[in-house]
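Supplementary Methods S3. Complex input for the phosphoenolpyruvate-bound model.
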Amino acid sequence: MRRPLVMGNWKMNGSLSSNDSLLHALSRQLKDLDSVDVAVCPPFIYLPQAIDLCESTRVRVGAQNMSDQDSGAYTGEVSGDMLRELGCTYVLVGHSERRTLYGETDQAVAAKTEKALEAGLVPVLCVGETLEERQSGEMESVIGRQVKAVLERCAISSFTQIVIAYEPVWAIGTGETATPSQAQAVHAYIRQLLAAEDAEIAERCTILYGGSVNEKSAKSLFSMADVDGGLVGGASLKADSFSAICRAAAQSL
Ligand code: PEP
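Predicted complex, serialized as structure tokens:
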């Protein structure tokens, strides 16, 4: 049985005072929710604050990105070891905004995934197709390429440590959510890709859905057989909405 996971991707949002209010409210609202794993991913600069405020709560903390290098002359980069030392549990790798705006290739994302595992972090591998790719029937080949790039670099056994987030690019930040059956179909396809290597590992791998999830859409999405929770952007910035989404994950059990 896979344990539901709900993660908030704050993107480049927040301030010391708004983070403080949000995290205090979340820790209050989620304190009895012990059947779901919950995490937030603030910008790098706020990680120490979030780790500190979440220390004795149910909420874990992740970063939104990391370097594919260990250390050295990589100005502006942050390594997996640094994140782990700080107290991060998760790190997003290959978010579509990183792939599109910063040119991250499948190979770079695979290298980051491998480094995250080496550092003892849980990489949250984001994959997803654009609207054009979906409309031209390329959805499976795009997702297949993104997942296989990581399988070429990381052993299938590491997929008990890796979380996959299916985030159709056309649904991120647009208010347009995939229907539960659209999400289920892609999640099942991803699990099938893993099962071709090892059926037992495929069953154990956590696969999240992301793309305009809100308190209204969460329950029906999370009730699908292969949807194990969500990666939430906009709605994770409001404590009431994010808590309601976390509760929807608990109801899907
Ligand atoms: C995201 O940033 O990963 C995301 C899913 O954003 P939103 O929920 O705002 O679409």
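The beta strands are 5-9, 37-41, 59-63, 90-93, 122-127, 163-166, 207-210, 229-232. The pocket of phosphoenolpyruvate is lined by residues 9, 11, 167, 172-173, 210-213, 231-234 (CB under 6 Å).
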